Amino acid sequence: MDAQTGPGAARFVTRVTQREPGRVVTEYFDGAFRGHAVLTTERVAEGRTRIRNDRQPQTHGLVMGIMARLVDIGAGHSGLMRDGYAGMERYIAQKHTAPPA
């Protein structure tokens, strides 16, 4: 996966290193971060799934090293993920309430 969202966005590249039902491990190997993340899913009720994204990447490079001292990168990522999950929830809810095509 190569993620980049716009001007000023941190560029990074990840690859899946392990995959099994309910668990995916990725490695950050190029760009602004180095390290890994583990994404897990767990069914908690009918139609409900808990998604957890545990990340341990470290900033990489001079610019990101400076940015990490000025900005809470983890908080920014958490906010971005919250917004993304909320958007997924709205999309899924809309699909469940839409009349059949």
Describe the fold and architecture.
With 101 residues, the protein is an alpha+beta fold. Helix content is 34%, strand content 43%. The protein is built from two helices and six strands; from the N terminus they run ββββββαα. It starts with a strand and ends with a helix.
Mean pLDDT: 84
Q: Could you tell me the strand content as a percent range? A: 35-45%
Query: What does the overall shape look like?
Result: globular
Q: Could you estimate the helical fraction of the residues in percent? A: 25-40%
Distance between the termini: 32 Å
In N-to-C order, the SSE pattern is EEEEEEHH
Number of strands: 6
The biggest sheet amounts to:
6 strands, antiparallel
Structural class: alpha+beta
Instruction: Determine Rg (CA atoms, Å).
Output: 16 Å
Query: Could you name the ranges where pLDDT drops below 50 across 5 or more consecutive residues?
Result: none
Helix count, DSSP H or I runs of 4 or more residues? 2
SSE inventory with pairings:
Layout: E1 2-3, E2 12-20, E3 23-31, E4 33-45, E5 48-55, E6 58-59, H1 62-70, H2 73-97
Antiparallel strand pairs: 1-2, 2-3, 3-4, 4-5, 4-6
Short description:
The protein contains two helices and six strands; from the N terminus they run E-E-E-E-E-E-H-H. With 101 residues, the chain is an alpha+beta fold.
